[in-house]
Amino acid sequence: MKNTNPMGNTFTIASAEIRALFREKTMYSITGVFLLMTAASSFIGWSTFTTADAVYRASVVYLHAQGVSTVPENPLHSVPALASFDNLIVYILLIGALLAVIIGHRSFMRERRSGILQVLFVRPVPKRSFVLGKILGLGLVLFSIMSMTAIISIASSFFLPLQHITIGNVGHALVFFLFSFLYMLFFALCGLLFAIVSKSESLALFIPICLWVGITFVLPELATGLTPTALLNPVTILQLPPLTGFFSTAQHILFPISLGWHYTTISGELLGSSFSTNLSIGQVFSGHWIEMTTLCVSILTLGLLSATALRRFDPRGDYVNE
Amino acid sequence: MNTTTIKPIITAHALTKQYKDTLALDSLDLNINKGEIFGFLGHNGAGKTTTVSILTTLIAPTAGNATVCGFDTQKESIEVQKRIGYLPENVKFYDSLTAYENLEYLAKLSGVKNPKEKIHEVLVFLEFTGIENKKLGEFSKGMRQRIGIAQAILHDPEVLFLDEPTSGLDPMGIKKLRDIIIKLNKEKGMTIFMNTHLLSEVAKTCTTIGVLNQGKLIYCDSLAHTMERFHDESSLEEIYFTLGEKH
Amino acid sequence: MRNYVFVTFLIFLVVLTGISMYVGALNFQVKVALFEKTYQALIAAGQPVGNLTRPEFFPLQLLRATIEYLEIIGAIMAISLGYLSIAKEKGNNTLPLIFTRPITRKKYYTGKLVGNAALLASVCALLFLTIIGIIVFVGGVHLSLPEVTKLIISGLATLVYLSIFFLFATLCTILMRFPSNALILTFVVWMFFVLIVPQIGDTMDTDNQVPGGFFNALHINQTDSHIILRQFPLYENLRNGTEETSITKHYERLTFALLGIKDIYNGKPLRYILLDKVWETLWLIGFLLAFGFASLYAFARSQVLWQKVE
User: Fold this and answer.
1) Within its chain, how far is the Cα of A207 from the centroid?
2) pLDDT digits (tens, 9 = 90+) for C172-202
3) Tell me, what's the pLDDT at C288?
4) I need a labelling partner for C17 at 20 to 30 A (CA). Which of A243, B116, C103, C155 fits?
5) Are C218 and A98 inside 8 Å of each other by CB?
6) Do B109 and A13 touch (CB under 8 A)?
7) Does residue B114 lie in a domain region?
8) Domain spans, chain A
9) What residues pair up with B10 in beta bridges, in sequence order?
10) Burial class (CB in 10 A: 0-12, 13-18, 19+), C80
11) Would you place residue A321 in the very low, low, confident or very high pLDDT band (cuts 50, 70, 90)?
């Protein structure tokens, strides 16, 4: 009889997943937009910085002309070396997470739309191998997208520098991208889970998008009092003064589920852009071990829920293309 | 005298399936022997696809149990899946992949050791070569059915389940399919379980027939014995209608 | 299903309206508390307090976050409505049955638009009535007639804004073979013009480079900062030009002016505000008409609508 090799099946499914994702035109479009925004972010950061520097010099001339003898030092000198990456925090919160939802959603919807599930599920492949293969495939695709983002951003920071970049800075940046990959993986698994459990294609997409809105905007608003668009300004969110009263209480209560806010805080510290500057990578993660554990537990939980949902999934069910 | 009891290759005992307000299967008992070509007949909504779905491990019964090749379809589903092939009604594939890519993927999942060789062997057997690099999206209905059969037999299953295999095929396509089924049975010794509406095809292909009516098995016997028993009826069609009227 | 999705978003939006107004009120309390603290400290130190400005409460300014949620989530809701109004027909393959009846495509589509416009109008009415209810009955604050009028016009602007996204979603769903691809495209475009482009504008703002404000750090007031920035016309035009491409920014500028969220318009008469914001109004109406006609034309001509989606 045929040998069934669970690990072999997992890798077969993962490689089929990667091949299918890289053949989809929609994937190329969205990934292209994301990488374009990454490149644009580096350029915008650099041009804004150099313009602000020129504005400072013009301000000095203006103030001297007004009779002001002592002009404050250039505030841009305290801007950290990796400040041009600050916009990436926002882009990953927005585009990166949405891209991940779409990748996860397409991963299983492709099977449902094609109608091949009846043929797949009579193969001697345990459901958990199927889900693991999907997650592995998704993870590798996201990892490759993050790698390209990292290459573009780090290369840009050498060609369009704000400050002198050290090897330590590069190390911090790489860890930031790895951490961003984990954050995106969470949303990819949201997309996958709801693609399995939802009756229709659009509901499968809308629910994780609602979750994304809640995590990205609503929870941080409750915890900080910042309006949604203020949350998109990296300088504002990374240099928030200490909270009091309701917001301090809300932050404590919402702490376990404020994944978007944890991502912002930890990323800010990794890039040296928050109040807690010059922390080592170890110090950043040891100071936020609860948040990291929450993220990892969330990812594991979504994986387990996906496997459970798949066991109950009826592949003969009517696919609702709406 | 050597008396060996032949164990049926497919068994169902008190198989029941309830969907919300609908009783799709009502205590179905079935025994199919190795080497048979079993034609499963019944009206639309009789429960034929539900039966096949249970036997192929896709869904669980509400009550009762079924075995295929001696393994329970629920408790030993992996063992069953190693030994069966399944062609669903209106089989679907990844349209953006070629025929070869689809078959290779499915062959690997079935544990086939040398997918490339096996795919070639199966396509030669089915007299369906030269299409390996064509995308499935460009295939006609008949071509899809043949790729459907190809994927079902890549791993040399002992039992082949076919759900309405002639649905949507033209007369030439139906004849080609009939020839393949008989060839698989005679040359590879495969047991075939076939859901179908086409009584003429059942008469030309099957060795045994079963008739399902509103979830209940109302008739099951060899084709030869059936024709003998209903000698007043001139065709299988008339026998089927007679059985339907009685129930 | 369409009702579930739409109703979910609507409830979400109503809840967010309440939350954001509550948070806005809390923020104001923080401002007042900070003022009191500073005032008392100056008094205790024997310092003059004439320069301190007591925060004044303008109820409509509480709606800043609400408007931003309408920009973001209201747009998603309108997109889902627009998408589903076409996707459902495609998924059920009902259009061949409808168009073998004596009805033109344009009439059929116009009927759809009217029905959905009424739905969006009721959503806007519900939201703004909720806002008035919260301010008057929960907050116990009296709203003057000019303030109510400004709220109603903001509601109309919201209706136009949501309709733009509704029409864009229907247009994409009509034109694309697979409805889910249309949904993804509309979300990407939504994200770009609702979130990214305005964010780029903010990012490029020189004042936002440093926490607390670049010019604040140099002790330069707003008037002087504008004089200095006039020396960088290309950069400022590029920044403003980027923001101009975003329909969301036009909607925001109009509603922030009407509701007095932008301080310079606070307390100004309605006529003054509408005249000053005529450019934003024209952008909104222009987009509405453009997408309206484009989607009508596409629906009347599309062959993709008929293709069975499997």
Assistant:
1) 18
2) 999 988 777 888 888 888 888 888 888 888 7
3) 96
4) A243
5) no
6) yes
7) yes
8) 6-312
9) B32, B68
10) buried
11) very low
Q: Which residues contact B28 (CB under 8 A, 6 or more apart)?
A: B12, B14, B15, B16, B47, B51, B64, B212, B215, B216, B217
Residue A114 neighbours by CB under 8 Å, 6+ apart: B92, B93, B94, B95
Report chain B's mean pLDDT, rounded to a whole number.
Answer: 89
**CA-to-CA dists, residue C167 to A65, A215, C294, angstroms:** 54, 28, 9
Number of domains in chain B: 1
Express each pLDDT in A157-179 by its tens digit: 887 766 677 888 889 899 999 99
Domain annotation covers residue B4: no
Residue for token digits 């927005």?
Answer: A94
DSSP string computed for C40-76: HHHHHTT---TT--PPPP-GGGGGHHHHHHIIIIIHH
Q: Is residue C211 part of a domain?
A: no
Q: Above 70 in pLDDT, residue C1?
A: no
pTM of the model: 0.85
- Binned at pLDDT 50, 70 and 90, residue A240 comes out as low
The amino acid present at B203, given as its one-letter code, is A
- Residue A1: the pLDDT is 44
* Average pLDDT of every residue of chain A: 84
User: Looking up tokens 């071509």, which residue turns up?
Assistant: B143
Q: Which pLDDT value is given to residue A222?
A: 78
Strand partners, B135: B98
Residue A76, SS3? helix
Residue B1 forms part of a structural domain: no
Query: If interface means Cβ-Cβ distance under 8 Å, which residues of chain B face chain A?
Result: 49, 53, 56-59, 78-79, 81-86, 88, 90-97, 105-106, 108-113, 148, 151, 155
- Predicted local distance difference test score (pLDDT) of residue C105: 82
Q: Where are the alpha helices (DSSP H) in C140-196?
A: 145-175, 179-190
Range of the domain at C140: 2-196+282-306
> How many C-beta atoms surround the C-beta of residue A281 within 10 A?
16
pLDDT of residue A315: 85
Strands B10-19 and B22-32: antiparallel
How many Å lie between the alpha carbon of A5 and the closest alpha carbon of chain B? 7
**Subunit contact A114:B81, Cβ cutoff 8 A:** no
Give the C-alpha separation, B172 to B150, whole Å: 18
Question: For residue B161, what are the β-bridge partners?
Answer: B86, B193
- The average pLDDT across C136-152 equals 88
AA identity, residue B101: E
Pairwise pLDDT comparison (A145 vs A257), residue with the higher score: A145
Phi-psi region of B14 (alpha: psi -120 to 50; beta: other; left: phi over 0): left
Question: Is there a contact between A229 and C198 if contact means CB atoms under 8 Å apart?
Answer: yes
Give the range of the structural domain holding residue B20, as residue numbers without chain letter.
10-246
Q: Phi, psi (5° rounding) for residue A18?
A: -65, -45
Residues C218, A62: C-beta atoms closer than 8 Å = no
- Give pLDDT, residue A125: 92
CATH number for B47: 3.40.50.300
> Is residue C38, in this structure, part of any structural domain at all?
yes
Report yes or no on B2 lying in a domain.
no
CA distance A175 to A270: 8
| Residue of chain B whose alpha carbon sits nearest to that of A17 | B105
Instruction: Calculate how close chain A gets to C103, using CA atoms only, in Å.
Output: 24
Residue of C nearest to A198 (CA): C1
Are A246 and C26 within 8 A, CB to CB? yes
The count of domains in chain C is: 1
- Residue C273: which pLDDT band, with cuts at 50, 70 and 90? very high
Contact C265, C257 (CB under 8 A): yes
Question: Residue C243 has what DSSP assignment?
Answer: H
Among the partner residues A2, A20, A114, nearest to B155 by beta-carbon distance: A2
Element housing B19 (H / E): strand B10-19
